[in-house]
User: What shape does this take?
Amino acid sequence: MAPVKILAVDDDPAIRTLIHRYLSQQNYQVESAGDGKTALELFNKFSPDLVVLDVNLPDTTGFQLCKKMQSNTNVFVLMLTSLADEDSKLHGFKEGADDYITKPFGLVELGARVGAILKRQRLVSNSQPEGIQLGNLTIDPHGREVK
Assistant: This one.
């Protein structure tokens, strides 16, 4: 089975490095970005299974980025931010976040939340058909390709 791919997006280099190292040690394949533009480029190239996404980015918001990423895919998004008020949390869920964790955070908790989200992904993936047949075309939603 291919390693799970995670994109970590945070404008703080120390936090980004911490997340990258920790998740890599948990045997995930991790890429990271410090701004929205780089995050979208990596997202399109890397096709992550999960995005750990900060809300406050220099060129956009994590809310907007979450919405863009989920407009074409069913990627799981875990918001990781200092915005701890209820309105921000609700806004994150409204824009498509699957989970929301506030800073400061513990790496063990982050790892547990990532694991829980990915467990749901396996359950959803196992219950879905391999492909959708439309005439001569087969759509593979999991592999994101048309044959």
Summary: The chain has one domain: 5-146. DSSP finds five helices and eight strands in the chain. The beta strands are 5-9, 29-33, 50-53, 76-81, 99-102, 132-134, 137-140, 145-146. The CA atoms of residues 12 and 106 lie 16 Å apart.
